[in-house]
Amino acid sequence: MIKGYWQVVARSSEIGLKPKRVWLLGNPVVLFRTKNGIHALHDRCPHRHAELSKGRVLKNTIECPYHGWRFDEDGVCVEIPGCLTDLPKIRVPNYSVCEKDGGIFLSKHPMQNAPYVHVLTGQSHVVRMVKSKTQSTLIDVAENILDATHTHFTHKGLLRGLSQKRHLVQVELVTGEDWLEITYTGEDRQDGIISRFLDGDRVKTVGRYRRPGIAELEYWGTKGLVLATTFHLRQVSLDTVEGIGWLTGPRSGGLGYLKALIFAPFFKIALEQDRRVLQSAFNNAQSAEPLIGPLDFLRRDIEAIEVGQSPTYGPRHFEMLL
Ligand code: FES
Ligand SMILES: [Fe+2]
Description:
Layout: E1 7-11, E2 20-24, E3 27-34, E4 37-42, E5 56-58, E6 61-63, E7 70-71, E8 77-79, E9 96-100, E10 103-107, E11 124-135, H1 138-146, H2 151-154, E12 168-175, E13 179-185, H3 193-197, E14 202-210, E15 214-221, E16 224-237, E17 240-250, H4 257-285, H5 299-306, E18 316-321
This protein binds FE2/S2 (inorganic) cluster and fe (ii) ion.
Residues 45, 47-48, 50, 64, 66-67, 69 line the site of FE2/S2 (inorganic) cluster.
């Protein structure tokens, strides 16, 4: 269903000399690095089905740990140890791979375009990359990242202050074929610890969802974009969502290097708070349907985008106390 899209499966730093198994759309994939870059094959030897990821990389090939058959970077069998005749034509299915901005992206299909990584590609410094694993569903995690209403409770003191004070906020929701964008304006300065890093008054906060599983947030100050986070999410099994996130800022006018360094650990605490509440809700749900409340502006559209249907078109406007 998500053919034709790149999906990030690992950070570049995770793939060294040893092959590594990752999962893509329920299939095991082995990633291995040669001097020509990263390669990805179905992680099952066609001979007796051993895991290629338990083998080793040898002269630009991957060697199966069971009988030593070797496959080249495209998955073609180039060696059967001890065999004196011509090799039969054998091939392990391969994946398109792209290594970009510290992430490794895969697609089952031949791809024309480079993957979309984050909002500030080419003009940013990456503050931090984070990886998370949450017991939940893709829709629930994506919605959580973009939902503003939980911050008062789940992140009390961190993203929001301790007071109950709320502000009248204008909300605009715009949708496209496989994306949506929500903009909150009129928010006063938020006084949680994290918000204090974001200099001066907050002008607007923008949330965006793109198929497949990309959830991003932008914090805009009076002088422009201050900080952005882009999470690439993927359902790795029925109950687990993996996310790789880029925390980025513009080279000038953003957070600044030092502040960004201090900021990162607080950001991780917020992630952990979300992980905990999502996990407990997931286990408590027992496949009950969620109730769509009056402030859940995004839920139905995220669901529509994920199953390949277009969300409701045209801008919509709301007001709320945030
Ligand atoms: S199972 Fe891989 S070489 Fe035999
Ligand atoms: Fe959160």
